[in-house]
């Protein structure tokens, strides 16, 4: 019964984002978009490096994104506190664009996905009968909402006249946390890890996502079934890419992405892998990062770097700076990739005054 109450109250919040306001006639899409505008106005959304003190969600978030040596930074991030007007709900995401329009595509997906997710969440709730609501859980609702939202985002991108996403695209890794429930949705090769305490008290990483690379069995089978090709170039051993049947273009190093419509008929998809995790007292924090970080930093290294940072405000920045240095000595002669990370801690944190001021200036 408590679960049913949560579902119905969530639906009411989407339809009536402000107290005393009647449901809008134009439906959930406009209501969700208006909710995003209100959240930005009230500084509940962070879209740059900085920190979020989630007092009501009892968590703390540090964010950092650094441009590499390939031109404009094609990574972008988002943290939305009180997502969907739920006081204990927080939404985090990292997006990694590629191609000449990749930075534009990444920012467009960052803008569209949260609002469409709220809209599809509303639709999923509304379409479920009362009896169904009693039997399905929070995760099933969010999973269905994610699948619908990602399909809608990719459909909107295809029709967008202002973006050339035929040969450009983006990954998207997002997490929703409400209470002890975490829902993780991944499109592409960014990665999320969880730092948890082992029996001996040491922090160890648990990888929450799979890097969706073209050489994974389920991915390569789908791609080849659709007449796409997967192979490595001679000067890039171990780097599997997706190619058109002619084997000449475009050489995409991931098997799922938004955009990249030149490959959408040849096995590339934008369907997210959606999973859940129940947070326990042993779990300390989550790190979401783009492949620029994970190409040169191991899961264990990331946990050690973040956990050893005395001031949590600097945890994401310290991890990203470590990755940039690692690129320069591990991948000499190779241009440093854009590196972005979000560190989501599962308990509140009162940063020292200098950190508060720095976050305000960011």
TrEMBL record:
Top enzyme class: hydrolase
Domain annotation PPM-type phosphatase: ranges: 60-346
Catalytic activity: O-phospho-L-threonyl-[protein] + H2O = L-threonyl-[protein] + phosphate; O-phospho-L-seryl-[protein] + H2O = L-seryl-[protein] + phosphate
GO BP annotation list: negative regulation of growth; response to water deprivation
MF-aspect GO terms: metal ion binding; protein serine/threonine phosphatase activity
Required cofactor(s): Mg(2+); Mn(2+)
Keywords for this protein: Hydrolase, Magnesium, Manganese, Metal-binding, Protein phosphatase
SUPFAM superfamilies documented for this protein: PP2C-like
InterPro entries in UniProt: PP2C, PPM-type-like_dom_sf, PPM-type_phosphatase-like_dom
Family, as annotated: Belongs to the PP2C family.
Transmembrane segments: none
Domain of life: Eukaryota
Record-given protein name: protein-serine/threonine phosphatase
Known EC number: 3.1.3.16
């Amino acid at each position: 019964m408590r679960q049913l109450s949560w579902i119905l109250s969530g639906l009411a919040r989407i339809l009536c984002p402000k107290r005393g306001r009647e449901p809008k006639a134009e439906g959930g899409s406009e209501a969700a978009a208006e909710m995003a505008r209100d959240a930005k106005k009230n500084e509940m959304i962070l879209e740059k490096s900085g920190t979020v003190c989630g007092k009501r969600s009892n968590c703390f978030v540090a964010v950092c994104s650094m441009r590499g040596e390939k031109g404009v930074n094609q990574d972008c991030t988002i943290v939305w506190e009180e997502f969907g007007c739920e006081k204990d709900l927080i939404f985090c995401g990292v997006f990694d664009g590629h191609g000449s329009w990749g930075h534009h595509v990444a920012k467009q997906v960052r803008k569209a996905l949260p609002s469409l997710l709220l809209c599809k969440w509303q639709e999923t709730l509304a379409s479920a009968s009362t009896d169904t609501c009693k039997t399905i859980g929070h995760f099933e609702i969010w999973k269905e909402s994610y699948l619908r939202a990602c399909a809608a985002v990719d459909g909107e991108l295809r029709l967008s006249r202002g973006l050339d996403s035929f040969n450009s695209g983006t990954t998207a890794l997002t997490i929703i946390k409400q209470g002890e429930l975490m829902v993780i949705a991944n499109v592409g090769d960014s990665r999320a890890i969880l730092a948890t305490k082992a029996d001996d008290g040491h922090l160890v990483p648990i990888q929450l996502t799979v890097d969706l690379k073209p050489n994974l069995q389920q991915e390569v089978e789908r791609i080849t079934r659709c007449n796409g090709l997967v192979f490595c170039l001679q000067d890039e051993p171990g780097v599997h890419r997706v190619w058109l049947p002619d084997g000449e273009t475009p050489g995409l190093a991931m098997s799922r992405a938004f955009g990249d419509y030149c490959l959408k008929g040849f096995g590339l998809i934008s369907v997210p892998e959606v999973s859940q995790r129940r947070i326990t007292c042993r779990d300390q924090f989550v790190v979401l990062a783009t492949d620029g970080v994970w190409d040169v930093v191991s899961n264990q290294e990331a946990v050690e770097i973040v956990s050893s940072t005395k001031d949590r405000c600097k945890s994401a920045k310290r991890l990203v700076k470590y990755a940039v240095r690692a690129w320069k000595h591990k991948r000499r002669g190779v241009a440093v990739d854009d590196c972005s990370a979000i560190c989501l801690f599962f308990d509140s944190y009162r940063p020292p005054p200098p950190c508060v001021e720095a976050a305000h200036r960011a």
